[in-house]
Design brief:
The protein is α/β, with parallel strands linked by helices. It contains nine helices and five strands, in the order E-H-E-H-E-H-E-H-E-H-H-H-H-H. Helix content is 47%, strand content 12%. The longest helix has 15 residues. It is elongated, with a radius of gyration of 18 Å. It starts with a strand and ends with a helix.
Length: 200
């Protein structure tokens, strides 16, 4: 049995029940909340563990709750889950020190791995006192690939990137594939995380 608690904040009762069951079967103690407001009204300074929260909820959003927790002191690491992920939301989550940003539907093992990371203190984003060590890709990005990458993480689509750089959408596709391959990332969320950590 894990000593720390996983606090689940999601307005969907079926999601709360499913996550609570999954985690309970793996030995975690869980506590569920139907809204950000419910969680904030119940939170205690002595609570230990991590928070798994949804982005879109009635009233206060998950990202607003994450910011409130960060402002109060980084005592409960946060894992964001969402069915409505986009680059802007991912960036906002990581800038507020999210351990991970997981898009629904997700594999249970992916969430469990994120929770283990959170509870072991291996934060994805560094604190100001402990900057993340900068690493470079094995094969450096070309100047053009860096231009494409900078527009990718701003959420621009291929046609917009092509127009901005004066190249064809097909060429953009080629550069995007090379960026992802060189940096060893599988999706845009992972790329945003690397950029925001200064590792790309």
């Amino acid at each position: 049995m894990h000593r720390d608690t996983v606090f689940i904040v999601d307005d969907d009762a079926s999601v709360r029940d499913a996550l609570s069951l999954l985690l309970s079967l793996r030995g975690y103690t869980t506590a569920t909340f139907a809204s950000a407001e419910d969680f904030l009204s119940a939170i205690q300074p002595a609570w230990r563990g991590c928070v798994v929260l949804d982005i879109r909820m009635p009233g206060m959003s998950g990202l607003e709750l994450q910011r409130s927790l960060l402002d109060a002191g980084p005592t409960l690491p946060v894992i964001v889950i969402t069915a409505h992920g986009d680059v802007a939301a991912a960036r906002q989550a990581f800038l507020a020190d999210a351990v991970d940003f997981i898009e629904k539907p997700f594999d249970g093992e992916q969430l469990l791995a994120a929770i283990e990371t959170a509870l072991s203190g291996l934060r994805t984003a560094a604190s100001p006192q402990e900057p993340v060590a900068r690493t470079s890709p094995a094969t450096p990005l070309s100047a053009r690939e860096r231009e494409v990458m900078s527009l990718m993480v701003k959420g621009l689509h291929n046609r917009r990137i092509a127009e901005a750089l004066g190249i064809s959408p097909r060429t953009v596709e080629v550069h995007k594939a090379r960026v992802m391959e060189k940096l060893g990332v599988k999706n845009l969320v992972d790329l945003v995380r690397l950029v925001d950590q200064g590792r790309a």
